[in-house]
Structures are given as structure tokens and as C-alpha cells.
Amino acid sequence: MRLHKVQFKDDEPLKIDIKSISRFPIHWHEDVTEIILPIKGSIDIKANFEEIHLEEGDFFFINNKTIHSITSEDGSVVLIFYINLDYFEDQFPYVKYMFFRNGIYEELLEKSGVDLETKEMFKIHFRNLLISVFAEILNPSVTNQMYHKILHKLVYQMIYEFNWLQLLQENGDFISSIHLDRYHRIVKFIQENYSQKINLDDIVSREFITKTYFSHFWKNLSTYSFSERINYERVLQSEFLLLKNMTITEISNQCGFSDTKYYYRAFKKWYGCMPLEHKEKCFSYASKGYEYEELTPSDIEVIFENYMKKFFVIDNSLDEDTDFSSLINKYLYFKYYYTIHGKNLSTDKYLILDPFKYSSFTEDGKIKFNWTIMDLLINLVIDFEFILQIKLNTDNIDRETVNKYIDIFLDNSINRYGIDVIKSCHFLINYRDSLIFDNTKPIEKFLTDRFNDANISYYIEP
After folding, report:
1. DSSP 146-200
2. Chain segment 136-191, per-residue pLDDT in tens
3. pLDDT in tens, 338-362
4. What DSSP assignment string belongs to 284-320?
5. Is the whole model's pTM more than 0.85, yes or no?
6. Mean pLDDT on 271-283
7. 297 contact partners, CB below 8 Å, separation of at least 6
8. Distance (Å) of CA 79 to CA 96, 135, 341, 359, 454
9. Which of 237, 303, 411, 422 has its CA 20 to 30 A from that of 107?
10. Is 70 exceeded by the pLDDT of residue 434?
């Protein structure tokens, strides 16, 4: 029962262990998110108060500083992906305080209202990424730069689609980054001050918001009350102290409970038993010894090949409207295809981007582009040297505002991708626009005024 320090080579973002496990020690990691993927047999995980059973095809997130153990009745083979949270902290300042999960607690499932079919597709796409990352270790087929891009996509998808808060959203709606950052900032404050008295005044003063605003904010994001969240953090911290030689009174006081009876009550709410009973279970588990074996990639080539044939699903339907995770899947499809056939392709390769397809309008009429999806598409252009064609299909946008929206798109694109990427693209104007709002000529003039040598063509869709 100890802290297991993961050593990342040269500050790499990822490390992968391969183990055959019957009984693995109780342990935890700091500044690491762990992803467990059984590729042969089934396993049982005990993570804090949860007991999780994984079959082949499943995976599970072990969150930062989560006390956990792994058992199996048949010496199952697992891949363990360790994500270096320090590496991604500059991009995501609160990544160490995010809680990742790929399934919903049973008691919340019925009232959550989430789109389970979409969530299941997220899991398939994420599993594809895990398979792809390890496949590159067995048989490298791309540059180190490309491999790191895939690793980044793995983490981006983890953050965007498996954050616990995001998982509960209906219809795949994304929570604003401002609200996510505020929520994780509050969690960070609780974790750093759990031993002290924490009240609502501490939060609203730090966040420069009112108590009324906070009440609506917290209710919209969290399934538990603010006080429940504080006690949840205190109870989790107490588990570390239970594994030491400390009395219940000492643990209760150190974790910020005003009375041991409140500690008992909170602990039983989450763990389903009293603290000393849980401590006895942990020491009983440790007393039975451990049985596991470290394996190498060459040891499991056949096992992994069979697993990949069974569970890697390529979605090469390029016509459908897609979400972020399926676009990542298509990125991998292009990657494998281009790795095999790219050098033999003598013709030009085009990627057609319709920014208005990935946009929506706010209630006050402002346009909102989905930059998450467009970032990924532009990455395809850069990674595979595609020729970018920007399709300006402005159906149902009146001529008074169309140039303003195009201007917003161009300004943001130049800031994100650089002037060279945008100037070198080929603009496609839907000729049908001229039959509706007579937008064609104003769009052409706007583009030529913006870029003297703009490459512009017209197209007609039947």
C-alpha cells in the first residue's frame, strides 16, 4: 500500500506497461491518469469505494491520486497507459483536478438523460486510439512527430469527452471552458484546503461571483451539493491516513470534520462501511501477497493482434455529419491509409472544409464556429499535405451579414493557423447563393479585397 512513482522517459507524455495480473498491490499515483485496457481475460478493479469489472473490449480511467488494486482469476493480460499530467498542464491548467470516467453510476443513469448511444461511440473511438498508440510501439509506421500528434489526440478526447461533467451532458453538448475551469478551480481549492473549514464565502470571494450565481452554476454542473463535494474530498483524503498508524479521531480532525460522528456518516455514505472496517479489508488484501508479471511488447504480439482484429473498428464513412470523436477516428483512418499508399499517390489530395456546416447561431444572432472540429480538419491538411479548399456555402444567411460572418471566420483562422495556411487555400463559392440572396459577387469582392491573389472558384450542387 504505497505511492507508485511513474518514471516518464525524457518527460514524455505517455508510458505503457504490460502486465499479466492475478493480484496487484494496493497503490496510487500522483500527477498521473491511468487507463487500464484488458486485452486477454477479465479483471476486477477496486478504486476508492468502487468495484469495477472489466471484460475484453472495456477500459477504465484511474484518476489522479486514486487508491486502487487489480485482481484477476485467470492471470489476465492488461495494457496500462500512464498519462503524464505535468506534460499537459500548460495546455490544461486544471487537468490534475479533472475526473475522467467512461460510464455513469447506476443510481444516476436513469435521471441523467444522456445519449447513451453517442457515449458508446465515444468509447469505441477512444479504444481505437488506445489500440493505435500501442500498435505504433509494436510496429512503428509513422514519424515521431505524427506519433505525438496521436498521443495528443488521445488526451484531448479524454478531456473533451470523458470528463465526468461532460459525460453527464445531454445530446453531447459541450460545457463552456470558462465554466469547466471555474469548477475545477473550486475543486482544486477544496483539495488544497480540505483540512480547514470551507464555506461558500471563500469560494464566491475568490471567483468574484455572487452566492446566487454560484448556486445556479453548481446546480447546473454537479450532481451533488457543494457540502457533499467537500465531504467527498475529505473522505477520499482520509483513506490515505487510514493506511497509516493513526486513530479515527486524529484522521477526522486532520481531514476537517468538526466531529468524528460526521466523519463516520460521510465515510459510510461513500464506502458503504465504517472506516476501520475498510482499513481491515485493505490490510487483509495486502496480507495475501501479490502475483503479477511484467511483460514486453514482443511477449504479447499474438495476443494483441487477436485483440486488434476483434475490437479495432474503422469508420470510413466520410459523408455523414460527424462529431469530434468520429473525426479523430477518421484521422486515424487517413493516417493508416496514407502511411501505406501515400508515397504512391501522384494526384493532388484535397480537403474541403465548410465552416458554416460546423457553426451555430446564438439567440442574439451571433455566429459560433466549432473550432474543435475545424482544428482537427486543419491538422489533416498540415499533416498529410492536403490542399485546403474552403467551401463558402452561405445558404440562408442574408447578404447584410454574410461578409461579416466570413470575416469572423477568416480572422480567427489566421490567428489559429497562420496567414500562410489561409492565403494558400482555394475558396469555393456556392453559385446557388446568387439565385437566393445575390451573395456571390459581394463574397468574391470581399475575398479579393482581403487577399489580392485569392484563388476563387464557383461550384453548383444539384
Report:
1. HHHHHHHHHHHHHHHHSBHHHHT-GGGPPPPHHHHHHHHHHHHHHHHHTTS---H
2. 888 876 677 778 878 888 898 898 788 888 777 665 555 677 888 899 999 999 99
3. 655 555 666 788 888 888 888 888 8
4. HHHHT--EEEE--GGGGHHHHHHHHHHH-------SS
5. no
6. 95
7. 18, 134, 137, 138
8. 22, 12, 30, 38, 50
9. 237
10. no
- 49-68: average pLDDT: 95
C-alpha cell at position 106: 447506476
Please count the CA atoms within 13 angstroms of the CA of 156 that sit on its side-chain side: 16
Q: What are the backbone dihedrals phi and psi of residue 168, each rounded to the nearest 5 degrees, phi first?
A: -85, -5
Residue 321 has pLDDT above 60, yes or no: no
* Grid coordinates given for 457: 472558384
What whole-number distance in Å separates Cα of residue 71 and Cα of residue 57?
17
CA separation for the pair 321, 318 (Å, rounded): 8
Mean of pLDDT values over 67-80: 95
Q: Which three cell numbers stand for residue 360?
A: 451555430
Residue 124 to residues 6, 259, 328, Cα–Cα distance (Å): 27, 46, 11
Neighbours of 325 (CB within 10 A): 26
| Locus of grid cell 460526521 | 262
CB atoms within 10 A of CB 429: 22
| Residue 257 in grid coordinates | 470534520
